[in-house]
Specification:
By secondary structure, the chain is α/β, with parallel strands linked by helices. About 45% of the residues lie in helices and about 15% in strands. It has three domains: about 5-85 and about 265-285, Rossmann fold (3-Layer(aba) Sandwich), CATH 3.40.50.10800; about 90-175 and about 290-300, NadA-like (Rossmann fold); about 180-255, NadA-like (Rossmann fold, 3-Layer(aba) Sandwich), CATH 3.40.50.10800. Strand 9 (about 195-200), helix 11 (about 205-210) and strand 10 (about 210-215) form a beta-alpha-beta unit. The structure holds 1,3-dihydroxyacetonephosphate. 1,3-dihydroxyacetonephosphate binds near residues 42, 43, 173, 199 and 216.
């Protein structure tokens, strides 16, 4: 028998003792999602963190997500079971580069995807997530240029949806970019009735083949509300756990077998237990950066 159930018992006991809450993203390992108090997309997790009463937040996701929780809850302790769970996309923009771009376009509004470090949010006007990027950009007066960082695929998607031209960055998510249009076409040949739903971090070629382009929580809602029996899913494969659980009578095919995010999968039950035992690894943001980053995040939360 595996030792996993034992971990679950110990985690639940210690979680109560420590007055902790476990938040997990849909891309986490199945057993991590199952032990979490709340599983959500990046917006849902930020909102959940902002309203928690718990003393400690065990954040099962990647670094920028835990950082966002720390910014929104300065009086709570935010712990990440593995501090090495980073996001390559978030690291594709630096303060120096963005400051340079801002000087080049002094009247531009900076809209920054939540997949970014706190110091980038701190020099941005608005934060956005994949579920509200279109809405955030639409709220900006049409005569103001918009610098959109760091995801070029999400940025292009927003351009198409809003009809606005944005000043785009060069970042991308390596996991979503591993999904190829040919992968979708092949699966469609085998399952012609399958609906295709993809995340806006996918390439334009992939997005063009989709019936629905939405965030992770949008994918979950679309599948639930659509009559089709077969779905091709174009995002990180961890989401299939929740989709299968919620819709046992439907068939889910991952668009590619390469959509496993190595960072998201660094968190395990064992590491969650150690995190609760030793109160590690604390994620903090310097107060001056946190205060400025909070402004960009709160402006987004007010809009949604
Ligand atoms: P969601 O906003 O859909 O949770 O996406 C987050 C993410 O990191 C996608 O790669």
């Amino acid at each position: 028998m595996s030792a996993q159930p034992d971990f679950a018992v110990q985690i639940n006991r210690l979680k109560k003792e420590r007055q902790a809450v476990i938040l997990a993203h849909y891309y986490q390992r199945s057993e991590v999602q199952d032990i979490a108090d709340y599983v959500g997309d990046s917006l849902g997790l930020a909102q959940q963190a902002a309203r928690t009463e718990a003393r400690i937040i065990i954040f099962c996701g990647v670094h920028f997500m835990a950082e966002t929780a720390a910014i929104l809850c300065p009086d709570r302790q935010v712990l990440m079971p593995d501090p090495h769970a980073g996001c390559p996309l978030a690291n594709m923009v630096t303060v120096r580069e963005l400051e340079k771009k801002k000087k080049q376009y002094p009247d531009a509004v900076v809209v920054t995807y939540v997949n970014s470090p706190a110091d980038i949010k701190a020099i941005s006007d608005y934060c956005c997530t994949s579920s509200n990027a279109v809405k955030v950009v639409q709220s900006i007066p049409p005569d103001r240029p918009v610098i959109f960082v760091p995801d070029k695929s999400l940025g292009r998607y927003v351009e198409r949806e809003t009809g606005r031209q944005l000043i785009l960055w060069h970042g991308y998510c390596p996991t979503h970019h591993r999904i190829l249009a040919s992968d979708i076409k092949e699966k469609k040949k085998k399952y012609p009735n399958a609906r295709v739903t993809v995340h806006p971090e996918c390439t334009e070629d992939v997005i063009k083949l989709a019936d629905k382009v939405v965030s992770t929580s949008g994918i979950i809602k679309y599948v639930r509300e659509t009559d089709a029996r077969e779905f091709i899913i174009g995002t990180e494969m961890g989401i299939l756990h929740r989709l299968k659980k919620d819709n046992p009578d439907k068939l889910f095919l991952s668009a590619s077998r390469l959509t496993d995010c190595p960072n998201m999968k660094l968190i395990t039950l064992e590491k969650i237990l150690w995190s609760l035992e030793d109160l590690i690894y604390e994620i903090t943001v310097p107060p001056d950066i946190a205060a400025r980053a909070q402004g960009a995040i709160k402006r987004m939360l007010q809009l949604v």
